[in-house]
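thread: overnight batch results

M.L. [08:02]
morning all. the overnight job finished for the chain we discussed friday. pasting input first so we're all looking at the same thing
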Amino acid sequence: GLFGLALCAISAVGAGTDPAAPSQTARTTVSVLTIAALLGVGLYAWYRDDKGRFGPVLFVTGISWFFVTLSNSDGALLYSVGRISGWIFEVVLAYALLSYPIGRLETRGARAVVIGGALLIGLLYIPSIPLTAEFPLPAPFTTCTTDCPQNFFLAGSEPAFLADVVKPIRDSLAMLVYLGAVFVLTARLRNAGHNERRTLTPVLSAAAMRFVAAIVYVLLRRIGAHGAVLEAAVFVALLSVPATALGFLVGLLQWRVYSGRALGLLTTGLGDTRNPGELRDLVAKALEEPATEVF
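M.L. [08:03]
and the structure it wrote out:
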């Protein structure tokens, strides 16, 4: 917890002051509080299940977001590290969302989305950094909108093929990865049983908002949109990150309440069962699963 507070303080102190950035104070505050939300919920999940993997996964997600907030700095090095971390964070967050609540990717679709996102970042985003004059703007990771710090640009001028070929391809593939994540999450929720939906619904709802908002702002930026609509889409994409942390917390708490209620009914009613049929009815009532069978 102290480590998390330290990261929040460093992020707040390192935030730049760009007078041209709209709602800078609000966006910086959301970015800092998001660190606390992700780390806090990760610590709670880790405490509740110290042998599980999801708590550490979410904690690492919070640390990743800390590096993303460095893009609010006025310094060229920290700004560039933050912008690059923003790409990596997308993959880390996708892993956390698609592996909830056990911390492992259970389906081929989930693994395909995460691996596809990692390959996209590793092959088309990071290698283009020395050739890119400036990072794409606006972005939910930074409050800077104009005259941003210099990145790791090494070329004398940005190659034409980067803007004409590479950037359109990688934006299209990024939206495809986001759509794949929405599809996997929707299919998982549709196929989930009554119990699983209890803990999945708040998380997957926040995740869907996250990926849909990302698709919208990437598309608007690709077609050259400007103004309030694009800024709103970027801000929603930023807000969707703490919303996912809240979704994780609500899902974990709902599962805990459900488990306590089920155990209470079983404990108080087990002694009154006189035959297998009554036992099955008690278990079905406690688990809230009418189709429960006892073998």
